[in-house]
């Protein structure tokens, strides 16, 4: 059952530069405090959706060209929402719940912890300070996911949950530990925490694909100015940011 769903998602999302990786809600809830649990039974089928470097050209730019008059908030968020809503329509007999990475609960906690979801689904390894034996830091250190193919050149965008699909026998894949030495892990966490703006942490491994120069410029630009880079009108900017 889950294989059929996974194949449908792969065929729908792959051409858009998006990936979907399956997991059970129980795997996610098992590694988090109750306050962050997803409110579904442990065997519920879920997928974490990633955007790869090719999403910019395959999905975002065509979406902007077609929907430019309807874009009134973050173009990437609106693009992903549009395409996942269309994917949801491919399962008319199933309830499909979608959670986006930018959504918050009334408590101001995120609806889901994106990097944890990517790790338990085997999509990307979530490196944290606990992965370093000799901790050299005396301050708070944030963790970061590294994809075995894209390094840090990807983003976690959403969860798709299928509440009616219970998959007790789904086997959990381990994420690829592609930053395997102590030295490299320290370098990764220091680059991400103290020099994240230069993006060097993204290339901590040899990657097969990274963001284009155009895409790097887009994401390095303050959000209010990104509309101009996509050729969107000043009116759209006023609607979105004022």
Report on the architecture of this protein.
The protein is an alpha+beta fold. It is 36% helix and 15% strand. The strands form two sheets. It has a four-stranded antiparallel beta sheet, sandwiched between helices. A two-stranded antiparallel sheet has the order 4-5. Helix 3 packs across helix 4 (75-88) and helix 8 packs antiparallel against helix 9. The termini are far apart. The relative contact order is 0.17.
Structure in a nutshell:
The protein is an alpha+beta fold. The chain has helices at 2-13, 25-29, 55-67, 75-88, 114-120, 182-194, 213-220, 223-229, 234-241; strands spanning 18-24, 44-51, 97-100, 125-127, 144-146, 155-166. The protein has 9 helices and 6 strands; from the N terminus they run H-E-H-E-H-H-E-H-E-E-E-H-H-H-H.
Task: Describe the SSE topology.
Layout: H1 2-13, E1 18-24, H2 25-29, E2 44-51, H3 55-67, H4 75-88, E3 97-100, H5 114-120, E4 125-127, E5 144-146, E6 155-166, H6 182-194, H7 213-220, H8 223-229, H9 234-241
The pLDDT mean sits at 92
- Supply Rg: 18 Å
The succession of helices and strands, N to C, reads HEHEHHEHEEEHHHH
Tally the helices: 9
Fraction of residues in helices?
25-40%
Helical/strand content category = alpha+beta
Q: Strand arrangement, largest sheet?
A: 1-2-6-3
Strand-residue fraction? Answer: 15-25%
Question: Termini distance?
Answer: 46 Å
Total number of strands: 6
Q: Low-confidence runs (pLDDT<50, min 5 residues)?
A: 234-242
| Overall 3D form | globular
Major β-sheet annotation:
4 strands, antiparallel
